[in-house]
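FAQ: What does the model actually see?

It sees only this:
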Amino acid sequence: MTKTRMNQKISVIGLGYIGLPTAAVFASHDVQVLGVDVNADTVETINQGRIHIAEHGLDQAVALAVSSGKFRASQTPEPADAFLIAVPTPFQPDDHSADLKYVKAAAQNIAPVLAPGNLIVLESTSPVGTTERMAEWLAEARPDLSFPQHNGVQSDIRIAYCPERVLPGKIIAELVSNDRLIGGMTPLCAQQAVQLYETFVKGACIVTDTRTAEMAKLTENSFRDVNIAFANELSVICDKLGMNVWELIGLANRHPRVNILQPGPGVGGHCIAVDPWFIVSSAPEQARLIRTAREVNDDKPRWVLDKIKSTLGAFLVANPDKTAANATIACYGLAFKPDIDDLRESPALEIAQAVAAWHAGQVVVVEPNIDQATAKDKALTLVSFDRAQQADIHVLLVDHSDFKTANTDRMSSDYVVDTRGIWL
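And it is asked to produce this:
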């Protein structure tokens, strides 16, 4: 059966890791797409058919969408049939509550161009109740229009929530293949959002209410966070008891109903490292396990730093002719996960920055997916893998494919801190 395409023109607000691939996929399915972003450089880059982020297959998809005339970018919203909001939702550093200023700004920016019959879908990962708050901001900006929180199915504007559920590195494919949760403020809102996403989604579009959809997204990432925290805590325990955590996990996973994840230097990315805090801030007395998991994972970079310091100390004891000032530490990887360029909430970046701040000697970094200009910190000197081999201490932070196949013969295993278990 051919899926129905209801909307002839859509506008995607926010052209980052989710918004840009989503815009490109819609354009590839014969939909006229306007992408809106506040960054002038981002807009100019996209209109040249190029991309400003690294994602497998995205460069070809954007180039084709722009050259076909189906996709263009602008800093200014224009009238459309549907608006998809995919802007950041970071947390406040003091209490981990959500900072919704970008969602509010997006709502206020599109409000002047809204017209009866428009559909607005929030895709940004958000605390429970955010879609309703967005609807109120829109109603305040456009009192001449009616909205579902006041007029139900008779409203001029339809509003829904549809979180992304994709894996960096596979975003284009998973946008198409994964199921989508559609949380509508009314059944009609949900129905129109389903028709929109069925333009390209091959998975199921599952309808619920906005609050349940918001909570489902947070639950998915909190589940992952709790499981990673278990692995990270095991690694700390095994280190204290003199055991190899990767051997232990491999043995435990031979049980038919056990599947422990792999430990690492912490947890990064905009989703897993952030979303559990939204649940904690909404229900602080009830979310005890989720809070503890977040604290375990947030503390892991500090533990890694202690391991680096003790390894440096052992090196200086074994080499009394050297001081910390002439000992070089090499950190391998800055991204929050393998084979991508995304540095958001990356524990590897946090650790490398901390090492550069306290170490008296030289600190070099190997990150094959970014260049010096995007390293986020001038104190971090990017070098080649071969150049890093000359260092005295080696810290593996991200298990990039390049690192798994690299020749590490020149490294002394006595002075390697391997947080991913691929070199030891």
